[in-house]
Amino acid sequence: MPDFQFSEADSPPERPQGAPPEGALPAPTNPEPTPAKPTGFQFSTEDVLAPQPAPTPIPKPVVPIPGPPIPNLKAPTVPAPSIPIPQIPTRSIPTPQIPVAKTSAPAVPNPAIPTPQPIAPKAAVPHPVPRPATVPIAVPAPSVVTPEALSDIGEGAPQDNFSRGIWDIGQKIKGVLDALEGPASWLLRVAAVVGICALAYILAATLFGGAGQSGNPKMAELTKNLDVASRTFMFCLIAASVATLLLGYEDNRLGIAVVVIGLLFHFGVPIVIKQFVGVTRATLPIAAHFRQGGYFVVMVGLVKAVADTAIWLWNLPEKMKTRHANVGVSNQAEAKQRIIAREANMMSPCWKLPFCRESIRKQCPAFLAKTTCWKFGRGCYCDTEMISRIVRGESLDVIKAPTQQSRQGKPPCGRCYIYLEHQTYKFRMLSPLVLPVTVLATWLVWPIYIRFFAIGDKAFNSIFSTLSFNSSNLTSGDMKSSAEAIDAVSRVGSNSAADIAYITQNLFGVLLGFMLLIYISKFIEWAIYKAKW
């Protein structure tokens, strides 16, 4: 078929009646598949062209197609109990297909297809999920002690090994004393009850039983009973003194109080009996036992006083730090430096004490000069200008340059924690020597003391004669009245003026030795903390 084109003069051919409009699909005449659409308009010679109206476009139906579900990009929230939640699959809804009409009838606009609504899934029935058994978290105990733990064992414990050994011994003694609290309390109660009963009998026999009357017909019986009662009372007094010191070992006033009580019984009771009761065979055992018991009570009190003095010497360095130290800080350095300080002693330099810090020590002029800061004239605690230069990272020449502290001359070592720590090592090294030095000094001056005491004994013979209470004061009739009385006197023993002087000499010698111990301790304190030896 030849190709042709209409010109503007030519009119379009008329469309036969009943023909489908332009653009519509032709009705199929047989079930065979429709041939491919031609690329251009072609008319045969038999076709008659007829004019036709402009076609009306048919709008295409808009069918909403549901898209795939948008996944939740947020992180799932994990509930407190980790129980797996079953996942419910989303039901897929197929998209309905629109059938295409294959008739030759005029095309009818497609009806609106309703949008399919998604069907809500049924609520999931939660099934009980067994909760897993709770397994306790096992925290393994540390098998290796860190340096921090090593340095912090024992609150208030010193850092050096020497002082730490003495401190450990003190802690063991304290533990033993705490364990004896129960038995000491029981002993004090028993001694108090028995001692009060014995003292009541002594008072009744001397005041109302006629023990001070030499012509009493029951003198022999009173002598025996008062001997037992006075001996029992003094045993109870010694036991009560020991129990009281065990219960109140932390009170440093009990030792002196017990010493005073012992002196009263040793010197006071014989004088009272002689002046107000009378010297008889019955009162002789009372005076003798009270004098001997008072001597032992004084010894017990002196032991407690010596222990209190030793504790005072031990705590004196800490008191001096609290009282005088205000240069620097009391915080100690890191654990590594504190481990190094365990080997510190009175000869250790400042960089081996527990206050030195490695970051400062590397640039410290005293350390570089291998001289202690108290001899160098300035250090990391007193010279803040030098420390500022080290912290700023300035050169070594600038750090070594003179500062305001170095120009002042005398550094404030007496108020510095580092220097007081050095003096603490020195004091605790020398303070244990106080007791042996006191004993040695007492032994050396004891012959001289005896000579001076003999001179004083002769000069104050009247005073010592008042203190003497012995069998020589008894009359001959009293001594020979009965064999029982002689036996009682022999059991008590003869106490002459020389015996009383000897006991008094020893007692005052011990008291003078205790005073010497205190003054030697004071001298060491002055030499170390005041004179800065």
TrEMBL record:
Transmembrane segments: 186-208, 228-247, 254-273, 293-314, 433-454, 500-520
Keyword tRNA-binding on entry: no
Disordered as annotated region, ranges: 1-61
Bias (Pro residues): 52-61
The UniProt record lists the keyword Acyltransferase: no
Keyword list, A-Z: Membrane, Transmembrane, Transmembrane helix
Protein name: Uncharacterized protein
